[in-house]
TrEMBL record:
The keyword Ubl conjugation does not apply. Residues 61-73 have a biased composition (Low complexity). It comes from Apolygus lucorum (Small green plant bug). SMART domains: RRM. Pfam families: CEBP_ZZ (PF16366), RRM_7 (PF16367). One of its GO terms (molecular function) is mRNA 3'-UTR binding. Residues 57-78 are annotated as: Disordered. The lineage of its organism: Eukaryota, Metazoa, Ecdysozoa, Arthropoda, Hexapoda. This is RRM domain-containing protein. PANTHER family: CYTOPLASMIC POLYADENYLATION ELEMENT BINDING PROTEIN CPEB, TRANSLATIONAL REGULATOR ORB2. One of its GO terms (biological process) is spermatogenesis. It is found in: Cytoplasm. PROSITE patterns: RRM (PS50102). Keywords: Cytoplasm, Repeat, RNA-binding. Residues 80-171, 188-266 form the RRM domain.
Length: 337
C-alpha cells in the first residue's frame, strides 16, 4: 500500500477530512416549542435504537439556539443522506417530502420501504436523500439546537408543528488519527461490526484506545455514493499486543455518553495478500483466500497451505476468515480433513 509507512505532519488528535491515502485503502476496489406536551413519537437514541418519547424538548429557553447563530458557515461538508426521527405516526411519504422540499430536491426513504409497500414510515423515522449537499446545510441552518441535537417542526394531518430530530452526518467525522507518528498497518487493523451510526471516528478511537491502548487510527465505514455510515468501522493499532488483545476479546462494549452497545471485533481481512507460507508458489501466484485469526497463526494461506498447516495437532479446529461484501470478514463453517 502506497500509504503504509507514510507519515503526515499533523498534531496528535487532529480531526481529518477523508484523505485519499486513507480512504483509498479502506474503500479499496482497485471511502420546541410550547403547546406540545405529552406527544408520543419515536426518536433515535445514541445507540441508534428507536425509543418512545412522550414530551418534546422545550427549546424556548435561552440555552437553545439556531445552529446558524453558532457559525454553521464554517465550510463543513455533510452527507446528502440525513436521518429524521420522531415523525408523527400519521405522516406519509408525500407529506414528509413536502415538509422538506423547501431545502431542495429530495427523495424520502426508510428501511425495507420497497418490500413493505407502505406509505408511512413504520418506525417513526426516515432518511432524507437530498440531490445537493447544499440542501443539508440549509436544513441545518433552519433547525433549533438543543444541546447536541437538532430539531425541526413538522406537521401531519392530526399533529401541528411536531419537533422531529434531524441528524446530519459530517464527513470529517468518518476519520480520526490519534497517533500520526505511526504508520498504518493493515495487519494490525480490526473490523468493528454493529457500530451505532451516531458514533464518530474520534469516539471509536478513544474507546478502543482506553480498552486496549496503541490506537493510531479509527475510521467509520461509509457508503461510496452518499458517504453515510454503514454501521461498521475499522481501528488500526500501532503494536501487535494491542491488536491481539482486541481480536482475542471478539466482542467489545462501546460505552461513550449515552452509547452502551456490545459490538463484534474481527481482524480486518485483505483480499490482495500472498500466502504467508509459500508466497504464491503453491497456488499459481494467486492471492491467498484464507486468513487465520487464531493468535497462533495470524497469517494468510492458500488452500494447499491451509490444509497442510491446519492438519497439525491443535490447529485442526481453526476457522478461516474470508473477505466478503462491505469489507466484512466472514468465517467459513468447515474444517479441513
Amino acid at each position: 500500500m502506497e500509504w503504509i509507512g507514510h507519515r503526515r505532519t499533523t498534531f496528535q488528535g487532529e480531526l481529518l477530512n477523508p484523505q485519499p491515502g486513507v480512504s483509498a485503502y479502506y474503500n479499496r476496489k482497485g471511502p420546541f416549542f410550547p403547546g406540545l406536551e405529552d406527544q408520543t413519537g419515536l426518536m433515535e437514541d445514541q445507540n441508534g435504537q428507536m425509543v418512545e418519547v412522550h414530551q418534546a424538548p422545550n427549546l424556548t429557553s435561552p440555552s437553545r439556539s439556531s445552529p446558524h447563530s453558532q457559525g454553521s458557515e464554517s465550510g463543513e461538508r455533510y452527507s446528502r443522506k440525513v436521518f429524521v426521527g420522531g415523525l408523527p405516526p400519521d405522516i406519509d411519504e408525500d407529506e414528509i417530502t413536502a415538509s422538506f422540499r423547501r431545502f431542495g430536491p429530495l427523495v424520502v426513504d426508510w428501511p425495507h420501504k420497497a418490500e413493505s409497500k407502505s406509505y408511512f414510515p413504520p418506525k417513526g423515522y426516515a432518511f432524507l436523500l437530498f440531490q445537493d449537499e447544499s440542501s443539508v446545510q440549509q436544513l441545518i441552518d433552519a433547525c433549533i439546537q438543543d444541546e447536541d441535537k437538532l430539531y425541526l417542526c413538522v406537521s401531519s394531518p392530526t399533529i401541528k408543528d411536531k419537533p422531529v430530530q434531524i441528524r446530519p452526518w459530517r464527513l470529517s467525522d468518518a476519520d480520526f488519527v490519534l497517533d500520526a507518528s505511526m504508520p498504518l498497518d493493515p495487519r494490525k487493523t480490526v473490523f468493528v461490526g454493529g457500530v451505532p451510526r451516531p458514533l464518530k471516528a474520534i469516539e471509536l478511537a478513544m474507546i478502543m484506545d482506553r480498552l486496549y491502548g496503541g490506537v493510531c487510527y479509527a475510521g467509520i465505514d461509509t457508503d461510496p455514493e452518499l458517504k453515510y455510515p454503514k454501521g461498521a468501522g475499522r481501528v488500526a493499532f500501532s503494536n501487535q499486543q494491542s491488536y491481539i488483545a482486541a481480536i482475542s476479546a471478539r466482542f467489545v462494549q462501546l460505552q461513550h455518553g449515552d452509547i452502551d452497545k456490545r459490538v463484534e471485533v474481527k481482524p480486518y481481512v485483505l483480499d490482495d495478500q500472498m500466502c504467508d507460507e509459500c508466497q504464491g508458489q503453491r497456488c499459481g501466484g494467486k492471492f491467498a483466500p484464507f486468513f487465520c485469526a487464531n493468535v497462533t497463526c495470524l497469517q494468510y494461506y492458500c488452500e494447499h497451505c491451509w490444509a497442510t498447516i491446519h492438519s497439525r495437532p491443535g490447529r485442526e479446529f481453526h476457522k478461516p476468515l474470508v473477505k466478503e461484501g462491505a469489507d466484512r470478514p466472514r468465517a467459513l463453517p468447515f474444517r479441513w480433513c
